[in-house]
Amino acid sequence: MNTGTLGRPGPQENKTPDPKIRAKPRCFAAIDIGTSSCRMLIARAKGEGFQVIDSFAKNVRLGSGVSVTGMLSDAAMDRAVAALGVCMNKIRDQNAVHFRAVATEACRKARNIDQFLVRVQRELGLDIEVIGTDEEARLAIAGCLPLLNGQQPHGLVFDIGGGSTQLAWLGCRDGHAEVIGTHSIPNGVVSLTDRYGSRLADPALYETCVEEMSQKVRDFCHSHRIADYVGRGEVQMIGTSGTVTTLAGIEMGLERYIRSQVDGASLSFERIGTLTEFLRRLELPQLAAQPCIGEDRAELMLAGCAILEAICTCWPVGRLKVADRGLREGILLDLMRRHEGDQNGARRQ
């Protein structure tokens, strides 16, 4: 965890911060280096939550090819380091002295991960923490909790990432959620695209991919008898992933992606099926031309749709809540609670 490390000298860091920057209100930052994207949030504490004051996201495809070669490529590391440089500049500009940077599936798998971590520390003065699947799930769940309703006693939260898909089964009661079980499937949109590429446009191969993912979801489903609760209408579902948010943006007819309109929206399984069928009929340039997809995400969409279809088939809840939030928000809440606890402890002494 990086907490108060802005004083560490680095090529892009002033050893003596501008006094005007030091005078800014205290804020916190979270960086998520995923298999596909590098994303950051900077926020100030506000009530029980926080107010975002800056953000950054860049599709860097750090994990491209890792599922095949087991290595991070030089080009992918270059892209990630450049994006992290932007993040660090923003963190310094906002004087975010409490921050944490985490990496997930691609970095867990890569045999040359130390090379990447050492380079980032040397060039940017940033320590990246490669977290395990349990911690990844915990943080993602914490970020999504505000979207849970009080009507159903159970919840399913899923995150379709670049290198893995995280599943969580929750008990919901009195405004609180208890994690009953989590499961990490080592397949995400980047790893499936690395394996199948444009061949996912073939209907037979697409169905094979859906069935493969369905079996992995069913293994988790059976261990907790989730289908029984779904059948009784006792389950709510939250989906946090680029696939889900993109489909929601298309459903809304947005000319450009607007997070404030998508986050917290509702999407029916019927519409998910219709949108998926529509996207599967498009060629790659047509996918890229969709306002909420673009060139960066176009070749990943069908893999994401296949994973989402597997989830919807195994758990026919009928409707899900769209979450453009998750791991970064969970990190921010952790940092703010820890800082508040430290302050309370200091006052008692």
Strand content: 15-25%
The number of helical elements comes to 16
Q: Strand count, sense and closure of the main sheet?
A: 6 strands, mixed
Level-1 CATH class name of the largest domain = Alpha Beta
Global geometry: globular
Number of strands: 12
Task: List its traits.
2 domains; 16 helices; 349 residues; Nucleotidyltransferase, domain 5; globular
Structural commentary:
The chain is an alpha/beta fold and 349 residues long. The chain folds into two domains: 2-131, ATPase, nucleotide binding domain (Nucleotidyltransferase, domain 5), CATH 3.30.420.40; 134-327, Nucleotidyltransferase, domain 5 (2-Layer Sandwich). The protein is built from 16 helices and twelve strands. Strands 1, 2, 3, 4, 5 and 6 form a six-stranded mixed sheet that branches. A hairpin with a 2-residue loop joins strand 3 (37-46) and strand 4 (49-59). Helix 7 (189-196) packs across helix 15. The longest helix is centred in the middle third of the chain and has 22 residues, at 203-224. The model is unreliable at 3-21 (pLDDT under 50). GO terms for molecular function: pyrophosphatase activity. This is Ppx/GppA family phosphatase. Residues 42-339 form the Ppx/GppA phosphatase N-terminal domain. InterPro entries: ATPase_NBD, GppA/Ppx_hydrolase, Ppx_GppA_N. It comes from Hwanghaeella grinnelliae.
